[in-house]
Amino acid sequence: MIMMTLKVYSIRDGAPVMDAACKAMHARIRQLCSIQFRRSIMLKWSEQDKDRKNYITQTIYQEFRLADGQSLVSSEWILHTAREVMSHRRSEARDAFRAGLPKPVWLDVEEWDMIRDEQHKTPHRYRQQRAAAATRLDTIGPSYLGSDGYDTMRHEFELAMGRPPRRTEESYGYSHGLIALLEDLEGRGAVVSWEYLR
Questions:
Q1: Which long-range contacts (CB under 8 A, 24 or more apart) does 145-153 make?
Q2: CA geometry: angle at 95 spanning 89 and 98, to 5°?
Q3: What global pTM score does this model have?
Q4: Residue where one domain finishes, among candidates 60, 90, 121
Q5: 3-state DSSP call for residue 11?
Q6: Do 63 and 21 meet the contact criterion of CB atoms below 8 Å apart?
């Protein structure tokens, strides 16, 4: 019989503290999404099978142990994290198709064909979305982004988080400012390196 070592995590403000155990939890959720939804990556999260979602939650509860005296990480947090993983995967697949890259190895041929069909039915969809986003940014102006605008926000985000911002994070940063974005991420368990910001 294989003995499994449970990883111990801690909770702060309703989300796991971003330490080695929480990073392992994130990695495990990504892995479980790949296993459970490998043939349905392009489906919206609301259309994914509920039993498969519940399996992810139960697996996390079985493999990760809470530090003494703290409340359990919520199933909502686990599923929110899984939903973000799947949203990112869909974006990656569409971006690869639009860039003319080969099919990602983790994507089924049928789903690659779905993206191709989607693109042929609405060939200007992504161009329209980019134009709409640019218009929104023009109307927001530099008030939340500082004098240097977008490049500064993106650079400072990368300094504080150690990675580039996702599309949803960029949008939130445009609307609410970098500090509000980082505080929101920190409230959900992310580690923010405030010392790297000016």
A1: 145/173, 145/174, 145/177, 145/178, 146/178, 150/174, 153/178
A2: 145
A3: 0.55
A4: 121
A5: strand
A6: no
Task: Mark whether 62 and 158 lie in a shared domain.
Answer: no
Number of domains in the chain: 2
Torsion of CA 35, 37, 41, 47, to 10 degrees: -170
- The band of 26, judged by pLDDT with boundaries at 50, 70 and 90, is confident
Query: Could you give the C-alpha distances from 6 to 9, 75, 79, 146, in angstroms and in order?
Result: 10, 18, 20, 45
**For residue 135, which of 174, 167, 94, 164 has the smallest C-alpha distance?**
174
176 and 116 co-located in one domain: no
Alpha carbon distances (Å) from 143 to 154, 173, 174 = 15, 11, 9
Residues 97, 13, single domain; the answer is yes
